[in-house]
Specification:
By secondary structure, the chain is mainly alpha-helical. About 75% of the residues lie in helices and about 0% in strands. The chain has 17 helices and 2 strands. The protein starts with a helix and ends with a helix.
Length: about 325
């Protein structure tokens, strides 16, 4: 099975999730609908709703009330993700998101932050409407850890002494924990036994780490047109991701000092960005990062042995493979 087959398996459910997005964005304040619809319509992968729906289907058919809840909660996890994108783009002063102008570039920082707050709040209202205290705890804990991850990343700005362990901890907070929560939510609403629920969460966590590591890798090897965002933007913000972290462990003291100077500069131009990219490629930072991502995907796939055999479980295997093979 390939990624297209995985998506096709829940195509009708995903269409229902898209309709739910639009319904949940309805507001008496037009700007909320404008910004929310702009982001939700900008071509996101819907990876988080997809893993939630597939995990729920792995434990049996999605029918009746169970399907209604799965669609609602799939829209919630995408709402949470969307809110974090709005806030992240303001923090990063990003101009591009998925190849188009970012919301803050179009409407300004203030509107983006406030609409992000609204979408976060609406997410929690929808969780309360669902009424499952276990799922509410899983998703609220995830949002707390996501905020911690973003603050931890800020604290490590331009930190050339950052360790891989510290960086993986940041990745778990900013990216992987929401995928873990999406998988665990799918398992809970499907009534999965405890060991299988924990395995589903572990699958999401490992896949989420690999997903972010591949993002890190693509930032150094992709063209801007393919990546959908400005190449080297993380570097210009002083952020050290795994390709550069590995390079800092491998390069000469003089090269390390040069990278530190670039990271600490008030402005980082294109010439400096390409200088660091060349250094990362020369020291194999992108190759090392891909290898680490492949290792996390292998660990994720092993967790799926706890789930019953089904087309949905096969689709989760396909999603894990897609994380490594994607080019954007």
């Amino acid at each position: 099975m390939v990624i297209q087959d995985a998506v096709a398996l829940v195509a009708d459910d995903l269409k229902a999730v898209e309709r739910a997005f639009k319904d949940h964005l309805k507001s008496g304040v037009p700007l909320i609908e404008q910004i929310g619809s702009y982001l939700l319509g900008s071509g996101g992968k819907r990876f988080r709703p997809l893993v939630l729906l597939l995990t729920a289907r792995a434990f049996g058919p999605l029918e009746g009330r169970r399907r209604e809840r799965a669609i609602l909660l799939a829209s919630v996890v995408e709402f949470i993700h969307t809110a974090t994108l709005l806030h992240d783009d303001v923090v990063d002063n990003a101009d591009l998101r998925r190849g188009s102008a970012s919301a803050n570039a179009v409407w300004g920082n203030e509107a983006s932050v406030l609409v992000g707050d609204y979408i976060f709040s609406k997410s929690f209202r929808l969780m309360v409407d669902d009424g499952d205290i276990r799922i509410l705890k899983v998703l609220s804990d995830a949002t707390t850890q996501m905020a911690e991850g973003e603050v931890a990343q800020l604290l490590h700005t331009a930190d050339v002494d950052l360790t891989e362990e510290q960086y993986i901890s940041v990745v778990i907070g900013k990216t992987a924990i929401l995928l873990a929560a999406a998988c665990q939510t799918g398992a809970i609403l499907a009534g999965a036994p405890g060991p299988a629920e924990r395995a589903a969460a572990a699958f999401g966590l490992k896949v989420g780490i690999a997903f972010q590591l591949m993002d890190d890798c693509l930032d150094y090897v992709s063209r801007q047109a393919d990546l959908g965002k400005q190449v080297g933007k993380d570097l210009q913000e002083g952020m050290i991701t795994l390709p550069l972290l590995h390079t800092l462990r491998s390069c000469t003291p003089a090269e390390r000092e040069r990278v530190a100077a670039i990271l600490e500069a008030d402005e980082v131009g294109d010439a400096e960005v390409h200088e660091v990219i060349d250094l990362v490629l020369r020291h194999g930072g992108h190759t090392y990062t891909r290898q680490r991502a492949e290792a996390f995907v292998a660990e994720a796939r092993a967790q799926l042995a706890e789930l019953p055999a089904s087309p949905a479980r096969d689709a989760l295997h396909a999603l894990a493979d897609y994380v490594i093979t994607r080019d954007r």
